[in-house]
Write a structure and sequence with these properties.
By secondary structure, this protein is of the alpha/beta class. The protein has two domains: 3-312 and 389-483, 3-Layer(aba) Sandwich (Rossmann fold), CATH 3.40.50.12780; 507-631, ANL, C-terminal domain (GMP Synthetase, Chain A, domain 3, 2-Layer Sandwich), CATH 3.30.300.30. Helix content is 31%, strand content 25%. The protein has an eight-stranded mixed β-sheet, sandwiched between helices. A seven-stranded mixed β-sheet has the order 5-4-17-16-18-19-20, sandwiched between helices. Strands 23-24-26-27 form a four-stranded antiparallel β-sheet. Helix 3 crosses helix 4 (90-106). The structure holds adenosine-5'-triphosphate and magnesium ion (MG). Adenosine-5'-triphosphate binds next to strand 20, strand 26 and strand 27.
């Protein structure tokens, strides 16, 4: 059998013999009671996986490894912000999780109750998540970078009994106090948590609300030797809720199950990441995002790997820090985002070659389109394979990538890869809903019911929003829409062309903003670029480009800027044709992004059209939009 047949067969079996396929994958985790039914798809678009099975995420991520390999490394915490480094074995991790679970139980947290985690990247955040999983409480992690208003919205949505937080985070050596933001958020929120558990890192002053606020160190001491057994949860009980990035509007609260998620992650560790127990996984994400949930906390630990939890920037103390950690901890799998690589790209590439990276099997990148120059730069710089992978908060694990654990698959630059097993991928015409059969034809990426294990069960507290948002937008068919555009080549590799609401229509031609961005970024002085469609009386829409230059001094004078603009636009003429040519290229020093690093094109577009930019609660740097506003004033 040839390599590519091997994956094709594997994939086909996952769709055609779905239950048999997933029953096999379910053996990657331990069950207290085995499932009675693999998939209940009788109530579309909902699906229930491993019905009747009883298991526990914490048991599978921690206890079973502590039982079999107590002293093996589990959690490696590195903070270049505070200069701390600490390694926990599986046995030590289990003890900490049990203490945290004991504190939660003592505060009246019960199975099904929500616990909101608003934390910097410290071990206690992992303990809190795993403790929730252990006792069957539902965690709702809110990214530590959010301020009061965003936090208040999420407190009201989750209605937590307990909030776990810390005095402060730290970014670029500057202390970012959390407590007053949290107090303010609780004041703003309608729902009031009964208890707030505060980890005191000694970084910032904290005021204390009597009867509500608890000190973690004191509570930990009180419950030091307590044992808390894992609650055996039915597979379809809720493990957590987590918000999408809010790139296209109000964030959606993704709700995840227990058994399906555990199986999906365990399978992905084997087939996609080629994980080996005892090795080390390093994801540079944050626990506030889905990558942090799946591939800092649960995935690596489920696979019996050590996971690196890193607090700090990729460029401090210098741009070699990640690679230094890879060498030191013999990291075998690494996961990051193109946006982070583009940050590194501004530094000397010599940092990439300074350390011994021989342990590293591959660097996985996800979250936004990986442009070819960035992919080449990092792949040549570290001399290791780069694997793009495409997915969403909703799916919990990759939809498109290459399954190196099944065949030694080759990546193609510009493509995140093929449909992963379990995802019954459709590429459809958005007007007719029909499948696109031919290669290189644009369509919407959609997934047929049922979504595979690990994907969202529903939108938290809002089944109607789940059905309406995801399952009703494709004409004539009940398919899950990803809201992303793509094409497929003859070999089944997909290429993402951008979000469906980022498509622009210039004089009747439908263009993905992504294609235009890709073309503009091929200019050597372009560091970052965003293209949006702006209403135009004549053409319906025109493309407007915002560019961050690598070397802004080259466009310092108006004449130079104009010449630069012309040169950059020429790339589009040459590569895509004049129809795709942006009406203007504007130079800015920073682009508006969500805190997870995604371009906020909708906000850019609104400002260009003089409209209200809408929900900006997830924006990273508000001055980015101010710059654009100034251009249009
Ligand atoms: P919201 O749904 O709230 O608007 P969001 O879609 O940005 O926010 P996420 O779930 O964090 O929230 O991001 C998923 C999206 O990110 C995908 O739908 C896709 O648009 C983009 N994306 C993720 N990975 C890739 C990739 N490898 N290549 C291209 N795009 C990607
Ligand atoms: Mg989305």
């Amino acid at each position: 059998m040839t390599a590519s047949n091997r994956y094709a067969d594997f994939y086909r079996r996952s769709i055609d013999q779905r239950d048999e396929f997933w029953a096999e994958q379910a053996e990657l985790i331990e069950w207290q009671t085995p499932p009675q039914q693999v998939c209940d798809a009788s109530n579309p678009p909902f699906a229930r996986w491993f019905v009747g099975g009883r298991t526990n995420l914490c048991h599978n991520a921690v206890d079973r490894h502590a039982r079999d390999h107590a002293s093996r490394r589990a959690l490696i915490w590195v903070s270049t912000e505070t200069g701390q480094e600490k390694v926990y074995s599986f046995a030590e991790l289990q003890a900490e999780v049990e203490r945290m679970a004991a504190i939660m139980l003592a505060q009246g947290v019960q199975r099904g109750d929500r616990v909101l985690v608003y934390m910097p990247m410290i071990p206690e955040a992992a303990f809190a998540m795993l403790a929730c999983a252990r006792i069957g409480a539902i965690h709702s992690v809110v990214f530590g970078g959010f301020a009061s208003v965003s936090l208040a919205q999420r407190i009201d949505d989750a209605a937590p009994k307990l909030i776990v937080s810390a005095d402060a985070g730290s970014r670029s050596g500057k202390v970012v106090p959390y407590k007053h933001l949290l107090d303010e958020a609780i004041k703003l929120a309608t729902h009031k948590p009964a208890r707030v558990l505060m980890v005191n890192r000694g970084l910032a002053e904290m005021s204390r609300v009597d009867g509500r606020d608890l000190d973690y160190a004191a509570e930990r001491e009180r419950h030091l030797n307590e044992r808390v057994p894992c609650a055996w949860l039915e597979s379809n009980e809720v493990s957590y809720t987590l918000y999408t990035s809010g790139t296209t509007g109000r964030p959606k609260g993704v709700q995840r199950d227990v058994g399906g998620y555990a199986v999906a992650l365990a399978a992905s560790m084997k087939h996609i990441f080629c994980a080996k127990p005892g090795e080390t996984y390093f994801s540079t994400s944050d626990i506030g995002w889905v990558v942090g949930h799946s591939y800092i906390i649960y995935g690596p630990l489920l696979a019996g790997m050590a996971t690196v939890m890193y607090e700090g920037l990729p460029t401090r103390p210098d741009a070699g820090i990640w690679w230094q950690l890879v060498e030191k901890y013999k990291v075998s799998v690494m996961f990051s985002a193109p946006t982070a690589v583009r940050v590194l790209k501004k530094s000397d590439p010599a940092f990439l070659a300074k350390y011994d990276l021989s342990s590293l099997q591959a660097l996985f990148l996800a979250g936004e389109p990986l442009d070819e120059p960035t992919a080449r730069w990092i792949s040549e710089g570290i001399g290791r394979p780069i694997i793009d992978n495409y997915w969403q908060t909703e799916t919990g694990w990759p939809i498109l990538t290459v399954a190196n654990g099944v065949e030694s698959a080759k990546s193609k630059f510009g493509s995140p890869g093929k449909a992963m097993y379990g995802f019954d991928m459709k590429l459809v015409d958005e007007n007719t809903g029909e499948d696109i059969a031919g290669a290189h034809q644009k369509g919407l990426l959609a997934i047929a019911h049922p979504l595979p294990p690990g994907c969202l069960q529903t939108v938290w507290g809002d089944d109607e929003r789940f059905v309406k948002t995801y399952w009703t937008s494709i004409p004539g068919r009940q398919l899950y829409s990803t809201f992303d555009w793509g094409v497929r080549d003859e070999e089944g590799y997909y290429f993402i062309l951008g979000r469906s609401d980022d498509v622009i229509n210039v004089a009747g031609h439908r263009l993905g903003t992504r294609e235009i961005e890709e073309s503009l970024s091929s200019h050597p002085n372009v560091a970052e670029v965003a293209v949006v469609g702006v209403a135009d009386q004549l053409k319906g829409q025109v493309a407007m480009a915002f560019v961050v230059l690598k070397d802004p001094t080259k466009a310092a004078t108006p004449e130079e800027a104009l010449r630069h603009e012309g040169e950059i636009i020429k790339r589009v003429d040459e590569q895509l044709g004049a129809v795709a040519r942006p009406a203007r290229v504007r130079f800015v020093t920073v682009l508006p992004k969500t805190r997870s690093g995604k371009l906020l094109r909708r906000a850019l577009q609104a400002v260009c059209e003089g409209r209200d930019p809408g929900d900006l609660s997830t924006i990273e740097d508000p001055t980015a939009l101010a710059q654009v506003k100034a251009l249009f004033a």
